Amino acid sequence: MFTFLELHPPALVVFVLIVAFIMPTVAHFKRKLCGPVACVALLFALAGSIHFAQIASVGRVISYAAGGWEAPFGIEILINPLSGFMLLTISFVTLAILIYSVSSLESEIPPNAIGWYYTVFLLLVASMMGMAMTNDMFNMYVFIEVTGISACALVLSKNTKLATEASFKYLLLATVGSGFVLFGITLTYLVTGHLNITFIAAEFTSIIPQYPFLSWTILSFFLVGFGIKSALFPLHVWLPDAHSSAPTTSSAVLSGLVVKAYIVALIKFYFIMFGFELLNEIYFRHLILIMASAAIIGGSLFAFVQLNLKRRLAYSSVAGIGYIFLGIGLGGATGLAAGILHIFNHAVMKACLFMAAGAIYRQTGHKQVNTLQGIAYEMPITMGAFSIAALSMVGLPLFSGFITKWHLALGSIEAGMPLFVGLIVLSGLLNASYFFPVIWQAFFDIDAHKPRTFSLDKIPVSMSVSMILLALAVLYFGISPEIPLSLAMKAAGMLLQ
Amino acid sequence: MDITERIVQNYPYFVSIVLFCIGIYTILSRSNLMKKIIGINIMGNAIFLLLIAAANIRGGIAPIVPHGGELPEGVYYVNPLPAALVLTGIVVSLSVTAFALSIVVKLYEHFGTIESHEILEIRSLD
C-alpha cells in the first residue's frame, strides 16, 4: 500500500473521496454502519499521512505530475514537510472527531441526513488534504471552493433557524473571500504566465522590481481573501455564529481545521511565491502583526463576555488564529515554526473543547457557562478532558499550548520585537480569565447543603474515547513535542529558503 | 502613448474592475438575499471577464496546429488555458449559486422572509 501511495500521492485524496460517495449507499442499507466505515477509512488515511510525514521528516520530497503532464503545464502534487505536517494534523483530528460522531450525530441532525452528513464530512477532509498537497494555484482554488461549500453544508445540516442563517452568512462571506483569492490568482497568472507555485516564484524574482504596485495588489487580494476565509480579526464576523450554531462535530472540525487549511494556503502563496523579505520591505509583515495582535486581544475579550459556552469557544478560536498569524508575521525560523506548530496544537485543543461542550449539552442540556456548578462530579471524563485542553489554551507548562507560546516568545525575541512576549503573557492571562471560571465552577463550586456523589459520565463510549484520545494527545505533545515540532521546524526552514 | 488611448485599448480590464466593485457593493448594501446572490455572480463574472479578456488576441486563431506544424507569419493563436480555467470557474460559481439558493429556500421556510434586516429582527426577538 505504501509503495503505491509513494508513487501516487493523490490516491490518498481520491480514496477519501470514493469513501465519501459510498456513504449514502451504506446509509441506505444500514445507517448505523456509516460512522464505523468512515472511521476505518480515515484510519487508513491516517496511516498514509503518517507515512508521508515520515518521508517528509527525513527530508525527502515527492513530486507527482497529475495525468503525466510535467510541471509547468500540468498540476504538480508536492509532499514536502509543510504538506506532510498538514496531512498528519487533518487525518489525526478528523479521525478523533469521526469517532465522536458515531454516537453523537443521531441526537443532533435528522436521521435521514446521516449518510449525507458523512459524505460532506469526508468531502471536506479530502479537499483539505488536497489543499495541503497541491502546488498548483488553480487546483488550490478548486479545493478552496469545495472546502467552502462542504463547510457550509456541515453548518446547515443541523437544520435550525440559527444554523441556517449562520450558514448563509458563512457562504456569502466565503464566496467573497474566494472571489478575492481568484482575482489574486488571475492577476498572478496574467503577469507570470504560470500556475505552478514553484515556477511563479522563479518568475517573480524579476517581475516584482518591474511591477511593484501590481505585486502589492496581488498580496493585498490574497490577504483579504484568505483573511475572510480564515477569520482574521476584523474579518471574523461570520465565525462565531457559524461555529456556535453548528452540530458539535461540525464545530470541532470547522474551528479545528478548516480555518487553518486556508492559512496553510496563504503561507504557501506568501512565503514560496513572494518571499519574506518582500513582506518585510513593504510593511505587510507589520500589517499582519497588527491584525494578529488585534485578533489575540479582541478575540479573548469577546470570548470573555460570552455566556454561551460554544460561542465563548468560537471567539477563542479567533484568538487562536491570531497566534498563527503572529507566527507568520514574526517570520523568523522559530516564529514561523511556532505558528505552524500552533495549527496542530490548536486543532487538537479546540476539537477537544468543542466535543466536551457538546457532551455537556447532551447530558445536562446546559448551554450557558454559569449553570455548570459541580458538573465535574456528574461527568468527570468530559470535564477532565475539558480542563486539560483549557489549561493548554491558557499555556501552562506540560501542556501542548505552552510549547507554541514558548516558541512564539522565542521567535519574537529572535525577530527583535520583544513587545510580543508581553502580548503572549497578557493573552495567556485573558485566556485564563474566561476558562478558569468554567473549571472552577465545575470542580469546586459545590452546594454545601447537597452532598455530591461521584458518578461516571452518561454519554456513549465512543464520545468519551475520542475526548480521552485528544486530551492524551494534548498531554503527550506537551511533554515530548519532538515529532510535530521537528516537522514544523523543517517546514519553516523550507519556506524561508 | 497617451493615457486615454491606453484606457480605450484596455477597456475590458476597467470594465471587469468596475463590475467587481459593483458586485461587492451589491453584496454589502442590499438587504434582499436574492440580490446578494446576484452580487456574488456579478463579482465572479468580473473575474472571468478579466481572464478571458487578457487571454484574447484580436484576430487570433484557435489553438490548433495546422498541417506542417508551422503557423503562418503574423498569425497568433489564442491561449486556451484561461478558457479552461473560466469553464472550471463557471462550474464552481454555478454550484455555489445553487447551494446559496437552496439555503435561501430554507431561510424562507424558517423565517418567512428573504430580507436580511427582517431576519435579524426576528432573530433578536427569539
Task: Give a description of the structure.
The complex is a heterodimer of chains A (497) and B (126). A two-stranded antiparallel sheet of chain A has the order 1-2. Chain A starts with a helix and ends with a helix. With 497 residues, chain A is an all-alpha fold. In chain A, helix 6 packs antiparallel against helix 7. The model of chain A has no long low-confidence stretch (mean pLDDT 89). Chain A is globular, with a radius of gyration of 22 Å. Chain A has 20 helices and two strands. Chain A has a domain of 190 residues. With 126 residues, chain B is an all-alpha fold. Chain B has a single domain, classed as Helix Hairpins. Helices cover 71% and strands 0% of the residues of chain B. Chain B is built from five helices and no strands. The mean pLDDT of chain B is 87. At the A-B interface, helix 6 and helix 7 of A face helix 2, helix 3 and helix 4 of B.
Topology:
The complex is a heterodimer of chains A (497) and B (126).
Chain A: H1 2-7, H2 11-29, H3 34-57, E1 62-65, E2 76-79, H4 81-104, H5 114-133, H6 137-156, H7 161-192, H8 197-210, H9 212-229, H10 239-245, H11 248-274, H12 276-281, H13 284-305, H14 309-330, H15 333-364, H16 380-394, H17 400-414, H18 419-444, H19 461-479, H20 482-496
Antiparallel strand pairs in A: 1-2
Helix pairs in contact in A: 2-3, 2-5, 3-4, 4-5, 4-11, 4-15, 4-19, 4-20, 5-6, 5-11, 6-7, 6-11, 7-8, 7-9, 7-10, 8-9, 8-11, 9-11, 10-11, 10-14, 11-14, 11-15, 13-14, 13-18, 14-15, 14-17, 15-16, 15-17, 15-19, 15-20, 16-18, 16-19, 17-18, 17-19
Chain B: H1 3-9, H2 11-29, H3 33-55, H4 81-111, H5 116-125
Helix pairs in contact in B: 2-3, 3-4
Concise account of the structure shown:
The complex is a heterodimer of chains A (497) and B (126). With 497 residues, chain A is mainly alpha-helical.
Instruction: Give the strand order of the largest sheet of chain A, numbering strands 1, 2, ... along the chain.
Output: 1-2
User: Which protein chains are joined by the largest interface, and how many residues does each one contribute?
Assistant: A-B, 28 and 32 residues
Number of DSSP helical runs of chain B? 5
Share in helix of chain B: over 70%
Mean pLDDT of chain A: 89
- How far apart lie the N and C ends of chain B? 63 Å
Task: Determine the number of helices of chain A (DSSP H or I, runs of at least 4 residues).
Answer: 20
Tell me the fraction of residues in β-strands of chain B, as a range.
under 5%
What's the CATH architecture name of chain B? Orthogonal Bundle
Shape of chain B: elongated
Radius of gyration of chain A: 22 Å
Give the terminus-to-terminus CA distance of chain A: 33 Å
Order of helices and strands of chain B: HHHHH
Shape of chain A: globular
* Most strands sheet of chain A: 2 strands, antiparallel
Structural category of chain A is: mainly alpha
Total strand count of chain B, please?
0
Text of the CATH class of chain B:
Mainly Alpha
Give start-end ranges of low-pLDDT stretches of chain A: none
